[in-house]
Write a structure and sequence with these properties.
Chain lengths: 597, 569
C-alpha cells in the first residue's frame, strides 16, 4: 500500500461539468435507460395503488363487523377476496418490474465502469512519460479502482433510488389527495418544516465538521511523519515529546469530531419525529373524518402506509445526495485524467531502416520550465558505430537516449536519422528501430519464457532458449524449479538483480534491432554475473549501431566515439586516442586519478 | 481482539444509557399503533370525538418522549464512538512508538499509518451504526412481537411464516454469493497488480511498442471483473424486491385471516390495523439487522488489523544501567544477525571496535548488511547472536534512553519533520539554544536557510535532497555525542561540500568515535580504518592504500566507480 499523503484541501466539484460527463457516459445506453425508467414507473405505480385497495379491504371488514353487530349482514367475502386477489397480483407485478429495473441498471453501470477502466488504461499507454511518472502512480491506480467504483455505485444506487423516490413521492401525494385533501395537508405540512430544520442543522454542523477536518489532517500528518521518521525519534529519545503533542492533537480532534458526528446524525431523529407526528395527525383527524363519514376506516390504514412510503424516499434522497456528490467528484477525477493530452504523434510515415547516420543538431531540453538538462548538443553517429556517453551522475546521459527514443520531445534543435527529423516519422516506428537495455531491468510477473519473448511475440520456444543461451542465462534458468516456466513474482526478487539484467538483454537480442541503447551496470552485481552481462552486451552490439552509457574502461576505450557530457553539454568528443591527445578534461581526469592512486 | 475490548471498557456506562434510551424510544414508538386501535375500536365505534382527542394527546406525549430519547441516543453514541476512536488511536500510537525494527519489519510503516488512521475511522463508523441499529433492531423486533401477541395471538403464526421465508431467502442468497465476494477481491487485486505493472513498465512498453499487447492483457482481467460483478449484483438485487413482496403478502394474509377471526368475534378492526403495523415492524427490524450484519465483515477486517498492532510482542526490552562513561569504546563481538523467518544471515560473525577519536568506515554493495550494523548500535534492532559491548558491558544492560543519549544517528533517508528549522534541530537536542543551532547549521554547510524559524513542510518536501541531507547532518552534530553514526548520508552532496563538512566533523568529534557507511569510495577514503563488507561478512579491514592493493572486492567496488576505473588502467 502506498503511504498516504496528506490530501490537499478538497477542490469544489464543478457540478455542471460533472453532470455533463456522467450524461455523456449514459448516452450510449439510451434505450436501456428508457426501459429501466418504464420498469421503475410500473413497479412504483403498482405498489402505490395496492395500499388503497388494502384500505378498501379493511373498510369491508369494518363494515361487515358493524353489520354483524347490527344483525343486518356479515363481511362481504366475495368483495374481500377480489380486493386481496388484485393486491397480490399488483405486488407480484411490482416486484418483478422492480427487479427488472435493477437488472438493466446493473448492466448499464457495470458496462460503463468496464469501458472507463479500459479507457483509462488506453490513456495510460498513450500519455507522455512525465504524466505517468513515479509520483503519480498511486493516484492513477486509485482512479482505476476507487473512483471508477464509486462512480459505478453512484450510478446504480442513486439512479434506482432517485427514480423510485421521485415517482413514489408524486404517486403517493396523488393518492393521498384522491382520498382526502385535508388529511393530506395535515400529513405533509410538516415536511417543509423538517427540510428547513435539516438545512439549518447541516449549516451548524458544518462549522464543527470543518474544524474537525483540520485537526484530523494535522493528526494524520503527525502519525505519518512519526512512523516514517521512527528511527530518528527513537535514537534521539523523542518519544515522550511526540506523545505529548499527539495527545493534545488527538484530544482537540475528538472535541470537535463528536459534535460534528452528533449534529450530522440529527436527520434520523428528526425524520422519525416528523413521521410520528404525521401518524398522530392522521389517526386523530382520520377518526374524526370517519365519524363525519367523509372517509372510510380503511383509508386511515392506507394513509399510514402512504406516510411511511413518503418519509422513506425523502430520507433516501438525502442519503443519495451524498453518494451523488462522491460520484461526481470521482467522475471529475476520471475525466480529468482522460482529458490529459496524449503523446503527440502527428506523422504516420514509418521509418524502416537506418541507412547512413544519426545526428543531433543543437538539441536543447529540460523537464520543467526554465530548467535545462541538455544544452545545445550536437554530434553525429555513423551507421555501425559504437558511441560511449560518459559523464558524472546527473550530467544528462540518460536524457540523451530518452530523447532519441522520443520519450520526450526536444525543446529546440533537431534529431535526425538519415537527414530527416525524427519528429517527421511515426513515433512507434522510430522506437521499433531501437532496442533498449536499461539498468533498471524491468520484467513482468510472468514466466521467464514469456518475458524473453516480449521482444518478439512470435518467437518460438527454440528461439527463446537460443537467446537465453547467447547471454549465458540458460544455465541459471534451468536450475530454477520450473525452468523457463518459472513465474517471476511481482518484484521479481526470486532471481537476482544481475540475472534480471541478463533476461532483459536476452529479450533485446530477440528483438533484433538495428540501433541499440545500453546502460552499463554500476550497481553491485557480483563479479561473475557482471562479466556475463558484459559479454552478453558485447555480443549484442556486434554489427549494430549502439549508444552506451558507459562506466567501464574497456567499453570506453573500444568505442568509435566517446562523448563527454558535463551539465548537459558536450565538452569533448572523439575516440580514446584523440581525446588523450586533446589533453583536455578526459586526459586530465585520467591523469589526476592516476596520481592520487 | 481482547485489547480492543479493553480500550472500550470505560465506555460501558454510556453504552448502558444508550441501551435504556433505545428501550424508551421503542416503547413510545410501539405504543402508537395500539392507541390507533383504541381510536378506531372505541372512538369511531362510539363516535366519541372527545375520546379521540384525549388519545391523540397521549400519543403526542409519546412522540415527544421518543424524540428526546432519540436525540439522547445520537448524543451518546457520537460521544462513545468518537471517544473510542480517540482512545484507540492513542493506544496504537503509543504502542508503535515502542516498536523496534523487528516489529516494523512485520508490519510496514505505510500499513501502520493506514491502520492508525483509516482502520480506526472505519471502526468508529461501524460502531455508530452498531450502537444505533444493532441494538435497536432486536429491541424493536421483540417489542413488536410482544405487542402483536397481545392484540391478535391467533394471527401470530403469519409473522412466523413470513419471518422464516425471509430468513431462508437471505440465507440462500448469501450462500450463493459469498464465494464470489472473495473471487471479486482476488480479481481486484489482480487488476491492480497488472495496472501497477503497466505503469511501472511504461518505458519498456513504449520502447517495444507493446501498447496493444498490454491493453489486451488488462482488458481480459477487466472483462473477468465485469462478469463477476454482473453475477454478484444480479443475485444481490433479488433481495430487495422479494423481501418487500413478502412483507406485503404478509399484510394480505393478515387481512384475509383477520376477517375470519373478526367474524368469530376474536378481534376488532382497529386491532387488525394495529396488528399489520406490528408485524411489518417485526420483519423489517430483522431486515435492518441483516443490513448491519453485512457491514460486520468489514468491521472485523479493520478490527483484526488494529488488534494485530496492539497484540504485537515487543522484542526489545529496556535495560537497567543508567550511566555510561564518557568517550567509551564499542566492540562488536562475534555478532550475527538474520531477519526473523529468514534462513540467510544478513550479518555473519562481525568483529570490530569503535575507538574514541578514530574514524571507521564500512563499505560494501547494496544488501551487504552495512545499514544493519549501524542499526544494531542504538538497538533499533537486536543482534541474533554475539554481543555488542560498551566498555565491556553488553548494550542490552543499559537503559535505552541512556544508550541512545550517547549516540548521534543519521539514517540513509534524510527525514525532517513538519515545523521549523529550529524545531527540527531541537529534536537532535531538546535544550539547544539559537546560537548552538546556528553553529551546527554553519558546520553542516546549511547556507540556504535565512532564518532558523523558516518553515519545514511535511517530510521536508520544501527542500532538495542535498539540502535535506545537510539539515539532517546538522541535527546529528548539534549536541555533543560519543558516537556519530552516518548511514550513507552524503550521497546527494557534491565532493566539495562533503569535504568541508567532513573536516568540520573532525573537529566536533575529536574525542568521539565516528562511523561512516557508504558505497562511495570518495566518502570513506580518509577513514582510519575501512571495513569491507561482502554478503554480511567482513572480508578485510585496513586503510584505503592497503585495501586497494590487497583486497579484490574493494578494488572491484572502486573500479565500478568511474573515476577510479580511469585511475586503475
Amino acid at each position: 500500500m502506498p503511504p498516504m499523503r496528506r490530501k490537499p484541501p478538497e477542490k469544489a466539484v464543478d457540478n455542471k461539468k460533472a453532470i455533463k460527463n456522467i450524461l455523456f457516459l449514459l448516452k450510449d445506453y439510451k434505450l436501456k435507460l428508457i426501459i429501466t425508467f418504464i420498469c421503475a414507473l410500473i413497479s412504483t405505480v403498482f405498489s402505490i395503488i395496492a395500499p388503497f385497495l388494502i384500505g378498501m379491504a379493511t373498510t369491508t371488514i369494518f363494515d361487515g363487523i358493524n353489520a354483524m353487530n347490527a344483525h343486518t349482514g356479515t363481511i362481504d367475502f366475495n368483495k374481500l377476496f377480489f380486493l386481496l386477489g388484485v393486491v397480490v397480483v399488483l405486488y407480484i407485478v411490482s416486484a418483478v418490474f422492480s427487479y427488472l429495473q435493477s437488472w438493466f441498471l446493473i448492466d448499464i453501470s457495470t458496462n460503463i465502469s468496464f469501458n472507463l477502466r479500459n479507457r483509462i488504461m488506453d490513456k495510460i499507454t498513450q500519455l507522455s512519460m512525465e504524466d505517468v511518472g513515479e509520483n503519480k502512480r498511486g493516484d492513477i491506480l486509485s482512479r482505476i479502482t476507487n473512483d471508477v467504483d464509486s462512480l459505478q455505485t453512484g450510478i446504480t444506487q442513486s439512479f434506482i433510488q432517485l427514480m423510485t423516490a421521485v415517482i413514489t413521492i408524486v404517486g403517493v401525494v396523488f393518492m393521498m389527495l384522491y382520498i382526502n385533501v385535508w388529511m393530506t395537508l395535515a400529513a405533509l405540512i410538516l415536511i417543509p418544516i423538517a427540510f428547513i430544520l435539516i438545512t439549518l442543522i447541516t449549516k451548524y454542523s458544518q462549522v464543527y465538521f470543518l474544524k474537525q477536518l483540520a485537526y484530523k489532517g494535522s493528526l494524520n500528518a503527525q502519525i505519518e511523519e512519526t512512523f516514517a521518521g521512527h528511527d530518528i525519534i527513537r535514537t534521539f529519545n523523542q518519544e515522550e515529546i511526540e506523545m505529548e503533542q499527539f495527545e493534545s492533537d488527538n484530544e482537540n480532534w475528538f472535541k470537535h469530531e463528536w459534535k460534528s458526528q452528533f449534529f450530522s446524525s440529527f436527520n434520523g431523529p428528526l425524520m422519525n419525529f416528523i413521521s410520528n407526528l404525521a401518524y398522530v395527525a392522521i389517526a386523530v383527524l382520520g377518526a374524526i373524518f370517519v365519524i363525519q363519514k367523509t372517509i372510510a376506516v380503511g383509508d386511515i390504514l392506507a394513509f399510514f402506509q402512504y406516510i411511511k412510503n413518503f418519509t422513506q424516499p425523502i430520507q433516501q434522497i438525502t442519503r443519495v445526495m451524498n453518494l451523488v456528490q462522491t460520484a461526481m467528484a470521482a467522475s471529475e477525477r476520471i475525466f480529468e485524467f482522460l482529458e490529459l493530452d496524449s503523446e503527440k504523434n502527428p506523422s504516420d510515415v514509418k521509418i524502416q531502416h537506418l541507412n547512413e547516420e544519426i545526428t543531433f543538431e543543437n538539441v536543447s531540453f529540460g523537464y520543467g520550465e526554465g530548467e535545462r538538462i541538455i544544452n545545445d548538443l550536437s554530434f553525429e553517429v555513423k551507421k555501425g558505430d559504437k558511441i560511449a556517453i560518459i559523464g558524472e551522475t546527473g550530467a544528462g546521459k540518460t536524457t540523451i537516449v530518452k530523447l532519441l527514443m522520443r520519450f520526450y520531445d526536444v525543446d529546440c534543435g533537431e534529431i535526425k536519422i538519415d537527414g530527416v527529423n525524427i519528429n517527421d516519422y511515426d513515433k512507434h516506428s522510430v522506437r521499433s528501430l531501437m532496442g533498449m537495455v536499461l539498468q533498471d531491468s524491468w520484467l513482468f510477473s510472468d514466466t521467464i519464457a514469456n518475458n524473453i519473448r516480449y521482444g518478439n511475440l512470435n518467437a518460438t520456444d527454440d528461439e527463446v532458449i537460443d537467446a537465453a543461451k547467447r547471454v549465458h542465462a540458460d544455465d541459471f534458468i534451468r536450475q530454477l524449479p520450473d525452468g523457463y516456466e518459472t513465474v517471476l513474482n511481482e518484484d521479481s526478487d526470486n532471481i537476482s538483480h544481475g540475472q534480471k539484467q541478463l533476461l532483459t538483454i536476452a529479450r533485446t537480442i530477440l528483438t533484433d534491432k538495428e540501433i541499440l541503447i545500453l546502460d552499463e551496470a554500476t550497481s553491485s552485481v557480483d563479479t561473475r554475473t557482471e562479466k556475463l552481462i558484459q559479454e552478453a552486451m558485447d555480443k549484442l552490439m556486434e554489427d549494430r549501431t549502439s549508444f552506451i552509457i558507459a562506466h567501464r574502461l574497456s567499453t570506453i576505450r573500444n568505442a568509435d566515439k566517446i562523448i563527454v557530457i558535463e551539465n548537459g553539454e558536450i565538452i569533448e568528443q572523439g575516440n580514446h586516442e584523440e581525446l588523450l591527445n586533446q589533453k583536455g578534461y578526459y586526459y586530465r581526469t585520467l591523469n589526476s586519478q592516476k596520481k592520487s592512486a | 481482539m481482547r485489547n480492543l475490548v479493553r480500550v472500550f471498557k470505560n465506555k460501558l456506562p454510556q453504552v448502558l444509557i444508550i441501551f435504556l434510551l433505545l428501550i424508551v424510544q421503542a416503547y413510545c414508538d410501539l405504543a402508537l399503533p395500539s392507541y390507533t386501535a383504541n381510536i378506531v375500536d372505541i372512538g369511531i365505534q362510539n363516535a366519541d370525538i372527545n375520546y379521540i382527542m384525549d388519545v391523540g394527546f397521549l400519543m403526542l406525549i409519546m412522540v415527544a418522549i421518543s424524540v428526546f430519547a432519540t436525540i439522547g441516543v445520537s448524543f451518546f453514541s457520537s460521544r462513545v464512538s468518537s471517544g473510542y476512536a480517540k482512545d484507540l488511536r492513542k493506544v496504537v500510537y503509543a504502542k508503535v512508538l515502542k516498536f523496534s525494527n523487528h516489529e516494523l519489519n512485520k508490519i510496514s510503516r505505510s500499513s501502520l499509518i493506514t491502520r492508525s488512521t483509516n482502520d480506526i475511522n472505519q471502526l468508529q463508523n461501524v460502531l455508530v451504526m452498531m450502537l444505533m441499529m444493532l441494538f435497536f433492531a432486536p429491541i424493536l423486533g421483540i417489542g413488536s412481537i410482544i405487542k402483536a401477541f397481545e392484540i391478535g395471538g391467533g394471527l401470530s403464526w403469519i409473522i412466523l411464516v413470513t419471518f422464516l421465508v425471509v430468513l431462508s431467502l437471505l440465507a440462500i442468497i448469501t450462500i450463493r454469493v459469498l464465494p464470489y465476494f472473495k473471487l471479486t477481491q482476488e480479481i481486484i487485486d489482480k487488476m491492480n497488480k497488472t495496472a501497477r505493472e503497466i505503469l511501472i513498465g511504461i518505458p519498456v512498453i513504449k520502447a517495444f511498442v507493446r501498447q496493444d499487447y498490454e491493453k489486451d492483457k488488462f482488458c481480459k482481467i477487466n472483462k473477468e471483473f465485469l462478469d463477476v460483478n454482473l453475477y454478484v449484483f444480479r443475485k444481490i438485487f433479488i433481495l430487495m424486491p422479494t423481501m418487500t413482496l413478502f412483507l406485503n403478502l404478509m399484510i394480505v394474509l393478515i387481512l384475509y385471516f383477520g376477517a375470519y377471526d373478526a367474524i368469530a368475534g376474536n378481534i376488532l378492526t382497529g386491532d387488525i390495523i394495529a396488528f399489520t403495523q406490528y408485524s411489518t415492524q417485526v420483519v423489517s427490524s430483522f431486515i435492518m439487522l441483516g443490513g448491519v450484519m453485512i457491514i460486520l465483515p468489514r468491521f472485523l477486517v479493520s478490527a483484526r488489523r488494529v488488534a494485530e498492532v496492539l497484540n504485537m510482542e515487543l522484542s526489545i526490552t529496556d535495560g537497567e544501567l543508567t550511566s555510561i562513561n564518557d568517550n567509551p569504546t564499542i566492540e562488536f563481538k562475534n555478532v550475527s544477525y538474520s531477519y526473523p523467518g529468514s534462513e540467510k544471515e544478513t550479518l555473519k560473525d562481525i568483529n570490530f571496535k569503535l575507538v574514541p577519536g578514530k574514524t571507521t568506515a564500512i563499505i560494501g554493495g547494496t544488501g551487504s548488511g552495512k545499514s544493519t550494523i549501524l542499526n544494531l548500535i542504538p538497538r533499533l534492532q537486536d543482534v541474533t547472536s554475539g554481543e555488542i559491548l560498551i566498555d565491556n558491558e553488553n548494550i542490552k544492560n543499559f537503559k535505552l534512553k541512556t544508550l541512545r543519549d550517547k549516540i548521534s544517528f543519521t539514517p540513509q533517508d534524510a527525514i525532517l519533520f513538519q515545523g521549523t528549522v529550529k524545531s527540527n534541530m531541537k529534536s537532535g537536542k531538546s535544550d539547544a539554544d539559537d546560537e548552538e543551532i546556528k553553529n551546527a547549521l554553519k558546520l553542516a554547510q546549511v547556507d540556504f536557510v535565512d532564518d532558523i524559524d523558516d518553515e519545514v513542510s511535511q517530510g521536508g518536501s520544501n527542500f532538495s535532497g542535498g539540502q535535506k541531507q545537510r539539515l539532517s547532518i546538522a541535527r546529528a552534530i548539534i549536541g555533543p555525542h560519543d558516537f556519530y553514526l552516518f548511514d550513507d548520508c552524503f550521497s546527494a552532496l557534491d565532493m566539495n561540500t562533503e569535504a568541508v563538512i567532513k573536516s568540520n566533523l573532525d573537529k566536533i568529534a575529536e574525542n568521539s568515535s565516528v562511523l561512516f557507511v557508504s558505497q562511495r569510495i570518495s566518502t570513506i577514503k580518509d577513514a582510519d580504518e575501512i571495513i569491507v563488507l561482502d554478503n554480511g561478512k567482513i572480508i578485510d579491514k585496513g586503510s584505503h592504500d592497503d585495501l586497494i592493493n590487497r583486497c579484490e572486492v574493494y578494488s572491484e567496488i572502486a573500479s565500478s566507480q568511474m573515476e577510479e576505473s580511469l585511475c586503475l588502467q
